[in-house]
UniProtKB/TrEMBL annotation:
<dbReference type="GO" id="GO:0008800">
    <property type="term" value="F:beta-lactamase activity"/>
</dbReference>
<dbReference type="InterPro" id="IPR000180">
    <property type="entry name" value="Dipep_AS"/>
</dbReference>
<dbReference type="GO" id="GO:0006508">
    <property type="term" value="P:proteolysis"/>
</dbReference>
<keyword id="KW-0732">Signal</keyword>
<dbReference type="InterPro" id="IPR008257">
    <property type="entry name" value="Pept_M19"/>
</dbReference>
<dbReference type="GO" id="GO:0046872">
    <property type="term" value="F:metal ion binding"/>
</dbReference>
<keyword id="KW-0482">Metalloprotease</keyword>
<keyword id="KW-0472">Membrane</keyword>
<keyword id="KW-1003">Cell membrane</keyword>
<protein>
    <recommendedName>
        <fullName>Dipeptidase</fullName>
        <ecNumber>3.4.13.19</ecNumber>
    </recommendedName>
</protein>
<keyword id="KW-0325">Glycoprotein</keyword>
<keyword id="KW-0645">Protease</keyword>
<comment type="subunit">
    <text>Homodimer; disulfide-linked.</text>
</comment>
<keyword id="KW-1015">Disulfide bond</keyword>
<dbReference type="GO" id="GO:0070573">
    <property type="term" value="F:metallodipeptidase activity"/>
</dbReference>
<comment type="function">
    <text>Independently of its dipeptidase activity, acts as an adhesion receptor for neutrophil recruitment from bloodstream into inflamed lungs and liver.</text>
</comment>
<dbReference type="GO" id="GO:0016324">
    <property type="term" value="C:apical plasma membrane"/>
</dbReference>
Amino acid sequence: MADMLRCLALLVAFCSVPPRAAADPLRDRALELMAETPLIDGHNDLPWQMKTLFNNQLNTVDLNTLANTHTNIPKIREGRLAGQFWAAYVPCGTQYKDAVRQTLDQIDLIHRMCQKYPESFMFASSSQDIVEAFKQNRTASLIGVEGGHSIDSSLGTLRTMYQLGVRYLTLTHSCNTPWADNWLVDTPSESPEHNGLSDFGLQVIQEMNRIGMMVDLAHVSEKHKRNVPDRILKKVRDKKGIVMVNFYNDYVTCSETANLSQVADHFDHIKNVAGPSVIGFGGDYDGVTRVPQGLEDVSKYPDLVAELLRRGGMTVKLKPPWERTCSGSLERWKRCGTR
């Protein structure tokens, strides 16, 4: 009887083991693809979270255990994030005050993140650095400055930031600069001052082109309220640029709720209008308050890639269009001639 009870107990224990989830061959393919080709995201605001939550004191936080942000090291690993442009962002309220100093503080923070976690992050300032970091299974860490007010209308400051590793500049944030109009001039809340760019604004673009700093148009005016019009998508394609899709719910669906499939709809639209070569990822994690269901944090990139593969189809000899998306920004950067 005792033996029978032990056998029954063993049977009950065996039967109570939950069944494994059904395998998803496209997610498996996504992971294979991300092991072959670096996925690079164009915008993450973890540095701003470090400033607001910890006053940039990295000794008071552990990115291996940080739990209340979209981004930490375990989530980056799970998300197979090979390259990340960290945003050096300071608010528009710093314009005409200490925007340059505060931006330098954020640039310094990104460098210190790489120094504190060398096993996870490798500072990168060129496409070759991204490739090397990928070989070492580290996340290539790059810098973008989010807002033209950060240079205080100084080409010398622009060049200095380039020397510190900044590789793109967002021309405006949600405020006009003395040389560029922001997206709010397309709403009743602000009036245009420069009809786009002033003469000095054109000089800024020319200097960025000369030194090899990418031009980010994310917050500029074009009567689209942050969504890129089809005619501009085609211009981006013709100029061999890239559009990195933002995951903020309010931009994905113009409402407070969204899901992964609706984000993929944006990828589909861009592909249909301008082709897959212009598409990239620009999640804006830790810079937005609402993210889609299924894309709750940076660990979810493989799920999005799997959905894109599901929509794009699979072939034996040719990679589907979405397989080129993962490396799109790297290829653009090579062509940009960034040194």
